[in-house]
């Protein structure tokens, strides 16, 4: 896990943190109430902190939904290869793995030193793909009740609606053609993708206890100084077709491989359902995700609408060529 530029680089023992801020109160409670030998290091995001616990770096994270944390605790206890492949939970001094206070459920995870994977680099793509296949292989059969989540096509349908809500932005900036092209392609490809027996595939995944990570972004893969890769952030973990992870990982790789189609398809040649995988890859839901994320930044005046629209336009021109080329493979 890397230290972000936005982290607050304060370092003090928890007993010294006697201020009125939430972080002060949290670490004071951990020190005095939970009896942790803990030292605050930095704030990663709201309710996510790097700290030192008995001198070892850890991640302390708060959860609004306690079930998201407790599912991970039970899962890691049943996953024999967890220590080799992931940032595992760490117990509190009394041996428990969760504590509740301030309206949040708190957990501790091992800190993984290293850098985030960079999907621009071929070696990082290979390593990420390999560890995801190993994750799917070593976790299948873990018999726990999973948090239910929407099928991928339903999730993408919600994203399409959010995209449609931003139509006026495209009209105002004279980008109607861009909006129409992306919208038409999204609607068409999503309909083709949804028109598959996903109920059967999901039921089969539940029966076989197939687990998927659910968030295969580059920042959830940490590569250490020895070039080993580990997975972090299992908040979206659930039972489902591993095809969902495979499709979304391919979409994460795609912006860096659109001009290297042979290499792209060779990397993903071992898909269990190659036709369904390809149909999923052709849904430009990842472009909508990046657009919506950046649009929220625009509303916060962190970036300009014009530059963000131009970035989307460039990404779409590249993707459009890939879609046209690949559609022939499905005929």
How is the secondary structure organized here?
Layout: E1 12-13, H1 22-32, E2 38-45, E3 48-53, E4 56-63, H2 66-78, H3 82-85, E5 89-90, E6 99-101, E7 104-110, E8 115-116, H4 122-139, H5 152-164, H6 167-172, H7 176-194, H8 198-208, E9 211-212, E10 221-223, E11 229-231, E12 238-239, H9 243-253, H10 261-267, H11 274-281, H12 285-299, H13 305-327
Antiparallel strand pairs: 1-2, 2-3, 3-4, 4-7, 5-7, 6-7, 8-10, 9-12, 10-11
Helix pairs in contact: 5-7, 5-12, 9-11, 12-13
Write up this protein.
- The chain is α+β, with helices and mostly antiparallel strands and 331 residues long.
- The protein folds into two domains: 12-111, Phosphorylase Kinase, domain 1; 122-330, Aminoglycoside 3'-phosphotransferase, Chain: A, domain 2 (Alpha-Beta Complex).
- Helices cover 48% and strands 15% of the residues.
- It is built from 13 helices and twelve strands.
- The N and C termini lie far apart (43 Å).
Task: Describe the structure in brief.
Helix content is 48%, strand content 15%. The chain has 331 residues and is α+β, with helices and mostly antiparallel strands.
């Amino acid at each position: 896990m890397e230290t972000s530029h936005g982290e607050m680089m304060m370092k003090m023992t928890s007993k010294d943190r006697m201020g009125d801020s939430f972080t002060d109160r949290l670490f004071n409670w951990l020190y005095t109430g939970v009896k942790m030998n803990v030292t605050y290091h930095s704030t990663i995001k709201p309710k996510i902190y790097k700290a030192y616990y008995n001198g070892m770096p850890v991640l302390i994270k708060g959860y609004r939904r306690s079930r998201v944390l407790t599912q991970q605790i039970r899962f890691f206890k049943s996953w024999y290869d967890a220590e080799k492949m992931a940032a595992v939970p760490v117990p509190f001094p009394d041996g428990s793995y969760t504590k509740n206070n301030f309206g949040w459920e708190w957990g501790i995870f091992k800190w993984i030193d290293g850098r985030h994977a960079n999907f621009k680099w071929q070696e990082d793509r290979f390593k990420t793909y390999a560890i995801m296949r190993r994750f799917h292989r070593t976790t299948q059969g873990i018999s726990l009740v999973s948090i239910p989540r929407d099928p991928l096509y339903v999730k993408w349908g919600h994203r399409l609606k959010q995209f449609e809500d931003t139509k006026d932005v495209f009209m105002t900036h004279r980008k109607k053609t861009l909006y129409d092209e992306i919208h038409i392609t999204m609607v068409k490809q999503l309909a083709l993708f949804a028109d598959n027996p996903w109920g059967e595939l999901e039921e089969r995944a539940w029966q076989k206890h197939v687990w998927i990570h659910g968030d295969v972004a580059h920042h959830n893969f940490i590569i250490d100084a020895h070039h080993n890769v580990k997975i972090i952030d299992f908040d979206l973990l659930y039972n489902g077709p591993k095809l969902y992870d495979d499709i979304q990982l391919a979409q994460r790789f795609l912006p860096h491989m659109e001009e290297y189609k042979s290499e792209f398809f060779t990397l993903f040649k071992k898909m269990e359902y190659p036709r369904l995988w390809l149909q999923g890859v052709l849904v430009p839901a990842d472009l909508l995700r990046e657009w919506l994320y950046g649009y929220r930044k625009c509303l916060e005046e962190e970036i300009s609408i014009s530059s963000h629209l131009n970035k989307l336009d460039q990404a779409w021109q590249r993707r459009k060529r890939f879609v046209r080329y690949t559609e022939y493979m499905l005929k």
